[in-house]
């Protein structure tokens, strides 16, 4: 589907970093940046901007903190029109650590928040907008927040917030096509002055299908990751999304080269992608942390017991 307004944002380093404590080396990140630039991707999300007062640099890698100087090392000498994005979480960043956009290589700051924290996320997003950044609010775990509180939050964002884009985020990979349609239409109906985006997870192998559904209903900002890399079952695969969009500005070949040279070897070292425990957590509309813990245990293939444990929790 070719639509001029559509923008593609790659989260390979940010979402992939949730597997390895954001400890990708500079060479790998630079290879990703180079390939995405050659492929014509609109945005690359480098990682999180977190305070080192809250997280140890001994425990986490560079892309937990996304310091401007580190980003400059990645992009230096590579010809690119692609913009740089970073993500912040409510309560995990010192606003004074973020320089004005005119002094930073970063173009966009995305604020991740739950519906209950919408006041804080609006304050933060407006702060970054005032510093000259493109901004978004990404509403996480939206599969659990689809009632009147979500409606109120969307109205508040429309009336009080300076963001460019509001993202619907299927954090648990629990949504099917009909809820995606309803949520995108809801957001489009309320947000008259903002774009709407979608970020899909692949617990039930619906990350790509749900992204297509979001596109059909006029979501214009779309997230993906190379080879679907990301926490647990991962994300909508970038290569599938680009293949679907049929936009001549995108070139699939650099992404395929990157998968062959970097992602296939990496997948032999760290695990991501569809497997039964993640499918079960998606079906149950649960955070994948329990499934991730199972994968590290001696009972990692005991699927029935895991299913019954979540079913019992849901019944309670």
Please tell me about this protein's structure:
With 316 residues, the protein is α/β, with parallel strands linked by helices. It folds into 2 domains: 7-267, TIM Barrel (Alpha-Beta Barrel), CATH 3.20.20.70; 276-315, no CATH class. Helices cover 41% and strands 14% of the residues. Strands 1-2-3-4-5-6-7-8 form an 8-stranded parallel beta barrel, surrounded by 5 helices. Strand 7 (195-200), helix 7 (207-216) and strand 8 form a beta-alpha-beta unit. It is globular and about 55 Å long.
- The 3D shape can be described as globular
CATH superfamily of the largest domain: Aldolase class I
Count of separate DSSP helical elements: 12
CATH class of the largest domain: Alpha Beta
Main sheet: strand order: 1-2-3-4-5-6-7-8
| CATH architecture identity of the largest domain | Alpha-Beta Barrel
Annotated CATH topology of the largest domain = TIM Barrel
Count of the domains: 2
Approximate helicity band: 40-55%
- Unreliable runs, pLDDT <50, ≥5 residues? none
**Class computed from helices, strands and strand pairing:** alpha/beta
Tell me how many strands there are.
Answer: 8
The SSE order reads EHHEHEEHEHEHEHEHHHHH
Give me the Rg, rounded: 19 Å
How many angstroms does the end-to-end distance come to?
A: 44 Å
Tell me about the largest β-sheet. Answer: 8 strands, parallel, barrel
- Which percent band covers the strand fraction? 5-15%
Q: Tell me, rounded to a whole number, the average pLDDT.
A: 96
């Amino acid at each position: 589907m070719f639509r001029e307004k559509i923008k593609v944002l790659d989260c390979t380093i940010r979402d992939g970093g949730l597997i390895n404590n954001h400890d990708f080396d500079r060479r790998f990140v630079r290879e990703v940046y180079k390939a995405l630039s050659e492929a014509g991707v609109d945005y690359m999300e480098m990682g999180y901007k977190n305070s080192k007062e809250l997280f140890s640099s001994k425990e986490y890698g560079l892309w937990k903190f996304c310091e401007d100087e580190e980003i400059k090392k990645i992009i230096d000498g590579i010809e690119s029109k692609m913009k740089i994005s970073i993500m912040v979480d409510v309560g995990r960043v010192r606003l004074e650590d973020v320089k004005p956009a005119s002094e930073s290589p970063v173009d966009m700051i995305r604020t991740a928040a739950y519906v209950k924290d919408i006041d804080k996320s609006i304050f933060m997003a407006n702060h970054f907008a005032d510093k000259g950044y493109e901004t978004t609010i990404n509403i996480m775990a939206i599969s659990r927040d689809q009632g009147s509180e979500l409606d109120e939050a969307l109205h508040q964002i429309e009336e009080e917030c300076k963001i460019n884009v509001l993202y619907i985020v299927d954090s648990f990979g629990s949504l099917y096509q009909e809820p995606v349609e309803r949520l995108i239409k809801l957001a489009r109906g309320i947000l008259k002055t903002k774009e709407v985006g979608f970020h899909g997870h692949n617990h039930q192998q619906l990350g790509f299908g749900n992204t297509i559904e979001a596109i059909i209903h006029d979501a214009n900002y779309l997230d993906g990751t190379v080879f679907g890399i990301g926490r647990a079952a991962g994300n909508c695969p970038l290569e599938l999304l680009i293949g679907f969009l049929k936009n001549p500005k995108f070139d699939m070949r650099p992404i395929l080269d990157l998968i062959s040279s970097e992602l296939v070897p990496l997948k032999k070292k760290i695990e991501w992608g569809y497997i039964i425990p993640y499918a079960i957590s998606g079906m149950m509309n649960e955070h994948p942390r329990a499934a991730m813990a199972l994968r590290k245990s001696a009972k990692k293939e005991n699927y029935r017991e895991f299913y019954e444990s979540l079913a019992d929790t849901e019944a309670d």
